[in-house]
Amino acid sequence: MNEPPGTKTIAIVALVVVLTVGAAAGFLVLTSGEEADQSILSVPDTSASAITSPPPSMEGINTHTQVYGTGADPNIITLGPKVGGCPGCPPYHDKTSMEFELDHGTPVLSPIDMVLVGFTNRNANYRVQADGQKQTPYNDLELCFKSASSDWPGMAICTYHLLSSPLLLGHNQDPDCGEVEEWQGTTQAQGHIFFSVDDYVISEKGNAGSCDALIGHTVKRGEVIGFAGSVGTHSMASFRFKVSHTLENPTVQNGGRYLHWVQPGSFFYWECYTPNADLPSGVLAYPFECGGYRLPAEQHDISFKYTSEKVTIVDLTRGSKS
Fold first, then answer.
1. CB atoms within 10 A of CB 95
2. pLDDT above 70 (res 316)
């Protein structure tokens, strides 16, 4: 069997289909598997990263580090640098993301070409923390994607603390898909979702169909995927990345054992997106307008929605196109 460079083939033996009913959570988790060969992809040598090499030129690279918020918990990082994000900003336990400190309602852009594979809606009018602090609003819509770029094969990307998204046609349009009064955790979910030590495919929770998510829709680098939300007075968009590698991730309990959480601010190289920019291989586009690039005016409206015309079919149990 001919394999592309940087791949390893392993045999995975599992049940044909295992259905586990999450009774307490109120949703159906689908775990699919069969005896098959599965290619485990590594980071291509040509993709700039902390574990390969820098881009050929650093001109225009990493120019907006002042926007970096708190990084991920070093103890959850299993590939590349352990530390990243805002210096002197301690993360909470098992934090997998880094915030980009953006104004409320700022358009959030796709850092690479990628496919929407799942979402969770945790938006609420307010949340009361354990210490009694009340945070209003509590925007916590999350979108999860799989890479459609050959620079980052197999990579998972999630962004959360979003106010809204054009990829959820029913969000804030259908009365059954919006926000609850008090935060309750995940009120609606569908598709492939990634957690700190697990990832699952969720059939549907909480009438998620009312959100009319464009599961399988491909977004190109630089396209709007959502709008930055707020937790109290703190506005942001949080990003987390799981990178595919031939090394096994010892922290994974269920799901992709060859996917690794990385520090977004120190693992990747970043550059402002412009339509004519030729970003070096592996470099991600900053997920906000910069470098003179501006979206069309209508895409600054938090009610902006895509159409459902161009949708790529995706096998959610494998996260691959079919």
1. 21
2. no
CA distance 322 to 315: 6
Q: Is residue 8 part of a domain?
A: no
Residue 272, φ and ψ in degrees, nearest 5: -65, 140
AA identity, residue 41: L
Angle at 293 between CA 288 and CA 299, to 5 degrees: 65
Q: 289 lies in a domain?
A: yes
Q: What one-character DSSP code corresponds to residue 209?
A: G
Q: Which residues pair with 249 in a beta bridge?
A: none
Contacts with 263 (C-beta within 8 Å, 6 or more apart), sequence order: 71, 72, 74, 77, 80, 81, 82, 83, 84, 85, 98
Tens of pLDDT, residues 95-140: 999 999 999 999 999 999 999 999 999 999 999 999 999 999 999 9
CATH number of the domain where residue 192 is located: 2.70.70.10
Closest CA to 144 of 70, 238, 54: 238
What percentage of the chain exceeds 90 in pLDDT?
82
Q: Which of 50-54, 281-285, 286-290, 313-317 has the lowest mean pLDDT?
A: 313-317
- Total domains in the chain come to 1
Q: Which domain holds residue 200?
A: 43-316
SS3 35: coil
Question: Of 237, 233, 231, which is closest to residue 125 (Cα–Cα)?
Answer: 231
Q: Is residue 322 part of a domain?
A: no
- State the distance between the two ends of the chain, measured CA to CA, in whole angstroms: 21
Establish if 242 belongs to a structural domain. Answer: yes
Is 142's pLDDT higher than 60?
A: yes
How many residues are there in the chain?
322
DSSP 176: T
Q: What is the pTM of this model?
A: 0.87
- Residues 276, 292 contacting (CB under 8 angstroms): no
Residue 322 — pLDDT band, cuts 50, 70, 90?
very low
